Amino acid sequence: MLILTGVFDFPASRGSGPRSMGTTFTVARRVGQASAVLTGYTAEYTTGDHNFGRLIVTLETQIISNSANGAQIRVTAFYGLRDFSGNWDDTYQGQVRFALLVEFAARIEPPIVLARRKAGRGRALRSSGTATGMTRSSRRSRRRSSRSR
Amino acid sequence: MQIVEGTLGDRDTLISPHQLALRTTVRLARPPTGGGGVPGGCGKVQALLRGFDLAYWDGDRNLARVEVNLEAVSRGNSPDVDVIAYIYIADESPSGDLIMAEVHFTLLAE
Fewer Cβ neighbours under 10 Å: the N or C end of chain A? Predict the structure, then answer.
Protein backbone atom coordinates (compact mmCIF):
# COMPACT_ATOMS: atom_id res chain seq x y z
CA MET A 1 0.00 0.00 0.00
CA LEU A 2 1.15 3.51 -0.83
CA ILE A 3 0.31 6.42 1.50
CA LEU A 4 0.49 9.97 0.17
CA THR A 5 -0.32 13.01 2.26
CA GLY A 6 -1.45 16.54 1.58
CA VAL A 7 -3.13 19.68 2.90
CA PHE A 8 -5.86 21.83 1.45
CA ASP A 9 -5.63 25.41 2.62
CA PHE A 10 -8.96 27.20 2.32
CA PRO A 11 -8.34 30.97 2.48
CA ALA A 12 -10.65 33.32 4.33
CA SER A 13 -13.79 33.86 2.31
CA ARG A 14 -17.54 34.23 2.66
CA GLY A 15 -20.65 34.13 0.53
CA SER A 16 -20.61 30.46 -0.41
CA GLY A 17 -20.28 27.01 1.05
CA PRO A 18 -19.30 24.33 1.22
CA ARG A 19 -16.25 25.24 -0.87
CA SER A 20 -14.10 22.69 -2.65
CA MET A 21 -10.45 22.28 -3.57
CA GLY A 22 -8.81 19.43 -5.42
CA THR A 23 -5.44 17.98 -6.31
CA THR A 24 -4.32 15.16 -8.59
CA PHE A 25 -1.72 12.50 -7.76
CA THR A 26 0.09 10.44 -10.37
CA VAL A 27 1.40 6.97 -9.58
CA ALA A 28 3.43 4.73 -11.83
CA ARG A 29 1.36 1.54 -11.57
CA ARG A 30 -2.19 0.36 -12.10
CA VAL A 31 -4.34 1.10 -9.05
CA GLY A 32 -6.82 -1.33 -7.54
CA GLN A 33 -8.41 0.90 -4.91
CA ALA A 34 -7.79 4.37 -3.51
CA SER A 35 -9.33 6.39 -0.71
CA ALA A 36 -8.38 9.64 0.97
CA VAL A 37 -8.99 9.88 4.71
CA LEU A 38 -8.75 12.76 7.16
CA THR A 39 -5.65 13.21 9.24
CA GLY A 40 -6.86 16.49 10.67
CA TYR A 41 -8.66 19.75 10.07
CA THR A 42 -8.91 23.33 11.30
CA ALA A 43 -12.17 25.22 11.03
CA GLU A 44 -12.51 28.80 12.16
CA TYR A 45 -14.48 31.98 11.78
CA THR A 46 -12.10 34.83 11.02
CA THR A 47 -14.21 37.78 12.15
CA GLY A 48 -14.81 37.04 15.80
CA ASP A 49 -16.84 34.20 17.22
CA HIS A 50 -20.27 33.22 15.97
CA ASN A 51 -22.87 30.63 16.72
CA PHE A 52 -22.37 27.19 15.31
CA GLY A 53 -24.83 26.06 12.68
CA ARG A 54 -23.16 23.62 10.34
CA LEU A 55 -19.66 22.20 9.69
CA ILE A 56 -18.77 20.14 6.65
CA VAL A 57 -15.37 18.53 6.15
CA THR A 58 -15.43 15.82 3.52
CA LEU A 59 -13.04 14.13 1.12
CA GLU A 60 -13.81 12.49 -2.19
CA THR A 61 -11.46 10.27 -4.17
CA GLN A 62 -11.73 9.47 -7.85
CA ILE A 63 -9.46 7.36 -10.04
CA ILE A 64 -9.55 9.43 -13.22
CA SER A 65 -7.23 7.28 -15.34
CA ASN A 66 -5.81 3.84 -14.79
CA SER A 67 -3.56 1.67 -16.93
CA ALA A 68 -0.54 -0.61 -16.65
CA ASN A 69 1.66 2.46 -17.17
CA GLY A 70 0.20 4.36 -14.23
CA ALA A 71 -2.82 6.07 -12.76
CA GLN A 72 -4.11 9.49 -11.87
CA ILE A 73 -6.09 9.94 -8.67
CA ARG A 74 -8.06 13.06 -7.87
CA VAL A 75 -8.69 14.05 -4.24
CA THR A 76 -11.29 16.74 -3.58
CA ALA A 77 -12.01 18.33 -0.22
CA PHE A 78 -15.27 20.04 0.70
CA TYR A 79 -15.28 22.47 3.59
CA GLY A 80 -17.88 24.80 5.01
CA LEU A 81 -18.59 26.52 8.33
CA ARG A 82 -21.57 28.68 9.10
CA ASP A 83 -24.21 29.83 11.54
CA PHE A 84 -27.81 30.05 10.40
CA SER A 85 -28.15 33.83 10.16
CA GLY A 86 -27.71 35.08 6.63
CA ASN A 87 -26.37 32.73 3.98
CA TRP A 88 -22.68 31.86 4.48
CA ASP A 89 -22.21 35.51 5.33
CA ASP A 90 -19.54 35.07 8.00
CA THR A 91 -15.94 34.84 6.78
CA TYR A 92 -14.39 31.46 7.50
CA GLN A 93 -11.15 29.70 6.69
CA GLY A 94 -9.56 26.36 7.39
CA GLN A 95 -7.25 23.51 6.51
CA VAL A 96 -8.10 19.94 5.62
CA ARG A 97 -5.26 17.44 6.02
CA PHE A 98 -5.47 14.02 4.46
CA ALA A 99 -3.72 10.76 3.69
CA LEU A 100 -4.41 9.09 0.38
CA LEU A 101 -4.32 5.30 0.67
CA VAL A 102 -3.55 3.54 -2.60
CA GLU A 103 -3.74 -0.21 -3.06
CA PHE A 104 -2.14 -1.28 -6.33
CA ALA A 105 -3.78 -3.79 -8.61
CA ALA A 106 -2.32 -7.28 -8.48
CA ARG A 107 0.49 -7.49 -11.02
CA ILE A 108 -0.20 -10.09 -13.70
CA GLU A 109 3.05 -11.53 -15.04
CA PRO A 110 3.16 -12.58 -18.71
CA PRO A 111 2.82 -16.35 -19.15
CA ILE A 112 6.06 -18.33 -19.30
CA VAL A 113 6.37 -20.20 -22.61
CA LEU A 114 8.34 -23.41 -22.27
CA ALA A 115 10.16 -24.95 -25.25
CA ARG A 116 8.30 -28.03 -26.48
CA ARG A 117 10.10 -31.34 -26.57
CA LYS A 118 10.02 -33.72 -29.53
CA ALA A 119 8.02 -36.82 -28.73
CA GLY A 120 10.12 -39.76 -27.61
CA ARG A 121 13.50 -38.12 -28.10
CA GLY A 122 13.74 -36.18 -24.87
CA ARG A 123 15.67 -33.50 -26.76
CA ALA A 124 14.98 -29.81 -26.96
CA LEU A 125 13.83 -28.39 -30.28
CA ARG A 126 16.61 -27.90 -32.76
CA SER A 127 15.37 -24.42 -33.66
CA SER A 128 16.41 -23.14 -30.28
CA GLY A 129 20.05 -24.01 -30.50
CA THR A 130 21.03 -22.36 -27.27
CA ALA A 131 18.56 -24.51 -25.34
CA THR A 132 20.81 -27.54 -25.94
CA GLY A 133 23.87 -25.59 -25.07
CA MET A 134 24.95 -25.56 -28.74
CA THR A 135 25.55 -22.46 -30.81
CA ARG A 136 25.07 -22.32 -34.59
CA SER A 137 28.85 -22.28 -35.17
CA SER A 138 29.42 -25.30 -32.93
CA ARG A 139 26.73 -27.27 -34.86
CA ARG A 140 28.41 -26.29 -38.17
CA SER A 141 31.85 -27.45 -37.01
CA ARG A 142 30.34 -30.74 -35.74
CA ARG A 143 28.71 -31.37 -39.16
CA ARG A 144 32.02 -30.63 -40.91
CA SER A 145 33.95 -33.06 -38.74
CA SER A 146 31.38 -35.89 -39.30
CA ARG A 147 31.60 -35.36 -43.13
CA SER A 148 35.40 -35.59 -43.10
CA ARG A 149 35.25 -38.90 -41.18
CA MET B 1 -5.84 -5.10 1.86
CA GLN B 2 -9.52 -4.35 1.22
CA ILE B 3 -10.66 -0.71 1.08
CA VAL B 4 -14.38 0.06 1.25
CA GLU B 5 -15.90 3.55 1.38
CA GLY B 6 -19.27 4.16 3.00
CA THR B 7 -21.56 6.74 4.58
CA LEU B 8 -23.61 6.75 7.76
CA GLY B 9 -26.66 8.97 8.20
CA ASP B 10 -27.78 11.62 5.76
CA ARG B 11 -28.53 15.31 5.54
CA ASP B 12 -32.26 14.84 6.02
CA THR B 13 -32.38 12.58 9.05
CA LEU B 14 -32.97 14.05 12.46
CA ILE B 15 -30.93 12.58 15.31
CA SER B 16 -32.14 12.91 18.85
CA PRO B 17 -29.62 13.77 21.53
CA HIS B 18 -30.24 10.40 23.14
CA GLN B 19 -29.37 8.37 20.06
CA LEU B 20 -26.01 9.59 18.92
CA ALA B 21 -24.72 6.45 17.28
CA LEU B 22 -25.16 5.62 13.62
CA ARG B 23 -24.56 2.06 12.53
CA THR B 24 -24.22 0.10 9.31
CA THR B 25 -22.98 -3.30 8.22
CA VAL B 26 -20.42 -3.58 5.43
CA ARG B 27 -20.04 -6.86 3.55
CA LEU B 28 -16.45 -7.38 2.43
CA ALA B 29 -15.39 -9.39 -0.61
CA ARG B 30 -13.75 -11.87 1.78
CA PRO B 31 -13.57 -12.23 5.57
CA PRO B 32 -10.85 -10.12 7.16
CA THR B 33 -7.77 -11.99 8.30
CA GLY B 34 -5.24 -11.15 10.98
CA GLY B 35 -7.10 -12.37 14.05
CA GLY B 36 -3.81 -12.84 15.84
CA GLY B 37 -3.93 -16.60 15.37
CA VAL B 38 -6.64 -16.91 18.01
CA PRO B 39 -9.23 -19.53 16.99
CA GLY B 40 -12.36 -17.63 16.08
CA GLY B 41 -10.44 -14.41 16.61
CA CYS B 42 -11.77 -11.38 14.81
CA GLY B 43 -10.04 -10.27 11.66
CA LYS B 44 -8.25 -6.98 11.64
CA VAL B 45 -10.47 -4.09 10.55
CA GLN B 46 -10.24 -0.34 11.01
CA ALA B 47 -12.68 2.44 10.16
CA LEU B 48 -11.10 5.77 9.19
CA LEU B 49 -12.80 9.13 8.97
CA ARG B 50 -13.27 10.44 5.44
CA GLY B 51 -15.47 13.35 6.37
CA PHE B 52 -18.61 14.57 8.08
CA ASP B 53 -21.46 17.04 7.78
CA LEU B 54 -22.85 18.10 11.16
CA ALA B 55 -25.49 20.70 11.93
CA TYR B 56 -27.95 21.76 14.52
CA TRP B 57 -31.40 20.91 13.26
CA ASP B 58 -33.42 23.98 14.21
CA GLY B 59 -31.36 27.11 14.31
CA ASP B 60 -27.82 27.81 15.35
CA ARG B 61 -26.55 27.62 18.90
CA ASN B 62 -23.42 28.14 20.91
CA LEU B 63 -20.97 25.31 20.57
CA ALA B 64 -19.48 23.64 23.61
CA ARG B 65 -18.29 20.36 22.13
CA VAL B 66 -18.25 18.57 18.78
CA GLU B 67 -17.16 14.97 18.42
CA VAL B 68 -17.09 12.25 15.76
CA ASN B 69 -15.63 8.83 16.52
CA LEU B 70 -15.65 5.63 14.48
CA GLU B 71 -15.54 2.00 15.48
CA ALA B 72 -15.34 -1.13 13.32
CA VAL B 73 -16.30 -4.52 14.71
CA SER B 74 -15.52 -7.69 12.82
CA ARG B 75 -17.69 -10.78 13.28
CA GLY B 76 -15.17 -13.60 13.47
CA ASN B 77 -14.88 -15.40 10.16
CA SER B 78 -17.80 -13.55 8.60
CA PRO B 79 -17.25 -11.04 5.80
CA ASP B 80 -19.67 -8.69 7.61
CA VAL B 81 -18.21 -5.79 9.56
CA ASP B 82 -20.23 -3.41 11.71
CA VAL B 83 -19.23 0.24 11.42
CA ILE B 84 -20.50 2.60 14.10
CA ALA B 85 -20.14 6.38 14.25
CA TYR B 86 -20.54 8.13 17.61
CA ILE B 87 -21.53 11.75 17.21
CA TYR B 88 -21.92 14.60 19.61
CA ILE B 89 -22.63 18.30 19.15
CA ALA B 90 -23.92 20.38 22.01
CA ASP B 91 -23.91 23.68 23.75
CA GLU B 92 -24.02 23.81 27.54
CA SER B 93 -27.75 24.10 27.97
CA PRO B 94 -29.25 21.03 29.67
CA SER B 95 -31.85 20.48 26.97
CA GLY B 96 -30.53 18.18 24.31
CA ASP B 97 -30.34 19.70 20.86
CA LEU B 98 -31.63 17.97 17.75
CA ILE B 99 -28.95 17.54 15.14
CA MET B 100 -28.40 16.08 11.71
CA ALA B 101 -25.27 14.15 10.82
CA GLU B 102 -23.69 12.46 7.87
CA VAL B 103 -20.42 10.61 8.46
CA HIS B 104 -18.21 9.29 5.66
CA PHE B 105 -15.79 6.47 6.43
CA THR B 106 -13.20 4.26 4.79
CA LEU B 107 -13.06 0.71 6.07
CA LEU B 108 -9.70 -1.05 5.89
CA ALA B 109 -9.58 -4.82 6.26
CA GLU B 110 -6.62 -7.18 5.96
Answer: C
Exposed, middle or buried by CB within 10 Å (0-12, 13-18, 19+), for A15? exposed
Give the residue extent of every domain in chain A: 2-104
DSSP result, A1-17: -EEEEEEEEEEEE-S--
pTM: 0.79
Give the minimum alpha-carbon distance from A112 to chain B in angstroms, rounded to a whole number: 28
Rounded to a whole number of angstroms, the distance from the CA of B59 to the nearest CA of chain A is 6
Indicate the pLDDT class of residue A125, thresholds 50, 70 and 90.
Answer: very low
Helix, strand and coil in chain A, % to nearest 5: 10, 55, 35
ipTM, 2 dp: 0.88
Distance CA B27, CA B18 (A): 28
Ranges of each domain in chain B: 2-109
Q: Minimal CA–CA distance to B97: which of B67, B43, B57?
A: B57
CA distance A121 to chain B (A): 48
Q: How far is CA B11 from CA A23, B8, B34, B90, in A?
A: 26, 10, 36, 18
A78 touches chain B (CB under 8 A): yes
Residues B76, B22: Cα–Cα separation, whole Å: 22
B contacts of A50 (beta carbons < 8 Å):
60
Do B55 and A51 count as a contact with CB atoms less than 8 A apart? no
Residue B79 CB coordination number (10 Å): 16
Q: Do A51 and B61 touch (CB under 8 A)?
A: yes
